Amino acid sequence: MKNYLKGNLYSNTAGLYDYDNRNIIKDDLDFYVEYANKTNGEILELASGTGRVSLYVAEKTGRKLECIELSEKMVERFNHKLQTTHKYLQKNINIQTGDMADFKFDREFEYIIIPWRALQYLPETEQAIKCLSNVYNHLSDNGLFVFDIFKPRTYDDKWIGREDVSYDIMADGKRIIRSTVNYSADTINRNIQYKTKYRIIDDGKETVTEDLLTYKYYERDEIVDILKMTGLTVKEEYGYYDKRTIADGDEMIFICGKLFDS
């Protein structure tokens, strides 16, 4: 997979990201607030994107957040929202462009989150280990770390090339059709790539904008072993944000704390 180590930078599509109105990208918001309310102090969000989760958590809890995001285009979009529609939250949110596998603060946090499958943006296991080790180093002894990954599927020739429409909406006077196009699968290194594609139809003219995204996929036991390796343990796990069992959902959501030897 060429260039997959560069990360998912959303160089072309960051400005379109917030048009997504599907339930699946709304259902996690109150979940992250619920666990925020079990903790105190500043919150650390890794891979914060355009602030979808950060802004909601800040508004609902009144807490301060430190946010790290690799994509400069996503950070630009996040800052724009803070300066316009969410100006009242500026004092509560600090954003920096950075790598979730390589960050350092001079303090610990009781609550650290990596929402919406973003840990899987790290295409190599070594990067995930480095990220989770940093989470451990920045998590207070009584703290909670919450993240979500998807359950892997069968990635074969039938999967490659398939295009699925995510949504088809009217917004800002134009029609926006977002789809994903399955691009490649590396079952040895356990990476998949797909194109996120936007068709914009405005005044009878159509433009297409897309980005190629890479995800690392894990089985449940693999990610649990990596967590243990980095000093973290699973306290709760769910298959979706309604807290159905992990066997009954398409997601794998983990609420973690520090692992202490008895």
Question: Could you list some keywords that capture this structure?
Answer:
alpha/beta; four-stranded antiparallel sheet; seven-stranded mixed sheet; Rossmann fold; 11 strands; 262 residues; N-terminal domain of TfIIb; 5 helices
Q: What is the ordering of alpha helices and beta strands?
A: HEHEHEEHEEEEEHEE
Mean pLDDT: 95
Q: Residue ranges: pLDDT <50 for 5 or more in a row?
A: none
CATH architecture descriptor of the largest domain:
3-Layer(aba) Sandwich
Main sheet?
7 strands, mixed
* Gyration radius from CA atoms, angstroms: 18 Å
Structural class: alpha/beta
What is the terminal-to-terminal distance? Answer: 43 Å
Shape: globular
CATH topology of the largest domain: Rossmann fold
Instruction: Bin the strand percentage.
Output: 35-45%
Number of helices: 5
Strand order of the largest sheet: 3-2-1-4-5-11-10
Within CATH, the superfamily of the largest domain carries the name: Vaccinia Virus protein VP39
Structure description:
- By secondary structure, the protein is α/β, with parallel strands linked by helices.
- It folds into two domains: 4-151 and 218-258, Vaccinia Virus protein VP39 (Rossmann fold, 3-Layer(aba) Sandwich), CATH 3.40.50.150; 163-216, N-terminal domain of TfIIb, CATH 2.20.25.
- It is 21% helix and 35% strand.
- It has five helices and eleven strands, in the order H-E-H-E-H-E-E-H-E-E-E-E-E-H-E-E.
- The chain has helices spanning 29-36, 52-61, 72-83, 125-138, 220-229, and strands spanning 43-46, 65-69, 93-97, 109-114, 139-150, 163-171, 174-186, 191-202, 205-216, 232-238, 251-258.
- A seven-stranded mixed sheet has the order 3-2-1-4-5-11-10, with helices on both faces.
- Strand 8 and strand 9 form a beta hairpin.
- The chain is globular.
